[in-house]
């Protein structure tokens, strides 16, 4: 029994016949080879990750716009985020997506700008991120404010059918549905419905 307890120490200190090394030296060399293999695998996977990151970045940057404004530039302000829609009082599908133009007072950091807002927008913080701004091209004085644009209630328009052009009957399971094509007073023959 005493010989069995010393067996691990005997194996570590003994010389291996086939490789002419002690077991400790053989294990050390094997461990170093294993570490080299691991380091190579880590380097390989780092290169793969860099390649995939650069590919994803190139795909993401296709739609990205390089924007930079200066002080005294005029910009429109996007009002689509829900919070801003409520603040600006604009809602529904047909409302404008941008309001303004507003003058840029100064740049704050890399991607934020402070705007000169009118008194009616005093509740809105004047600093906005660059993605919410769109450059005003042309003279900002020529922009018509939306409040001054209105449709008169007395205006009306009636379209009168002029001529009957075509009739089709389509069959749906148990029913027959008729489709009729008319030429209206405001359309040409190509635009008839």
Measured on Cα atoms, how large is the radius of gyration?
38 Å
Q: What's the tally of helices?
A: 4
Beta strand count: 9
Q: What's the number of structural domains? A: 3
Overview of this structure, please?
Keywords: Signal. It comes from Solanum verrucosum. With 193 residues, the protein is of the alpha+beta class. The chain contains 4 helices and 9 strands, in the order ααββαβαββββββ. The strands form 3 sheets. It has a 5-stranded antiparallel beta sheet, with no helix packed on it. The chain is flat and about 105 Å long.
Features:
single chain, 193 residues, alpha+beta, five-stranded antiparallel beta sheet, two-stranded antiparallel ribbon, 4 helices, SH3_Tf2-1
Q: Quick recap of the structure?
A:
With 193 residues, this protein is α+β, with helices and mostly antiparallel strands. The chain has 4 helices and 9 strands; from the N terminus they run ααββαβαββββββ. The strands form 3 sheets. It has a 5-stranded antiparallel beta sheet with strand order 6-5-4-3-7, with no helix packed on it. Strands 1-2 form a two-stranded antiparallel sheet. A two-stranded antiparallel sheet has the order 8-9.
Can you lay out the helices and strands and say which pair or pack?
Blueprint: H1 2-5, H2 7-13, E1 15-16, E2 21-22, H3 23-60, E3 74-78, H4 82-88, E4 98-108, E5 112-116, E6 127-129, E7 133-135, E8 161-172, E9 175-184
Antiparallel strand pairs: 1-2, 3-4, 3-7, 4-5, 5-6, 8-9
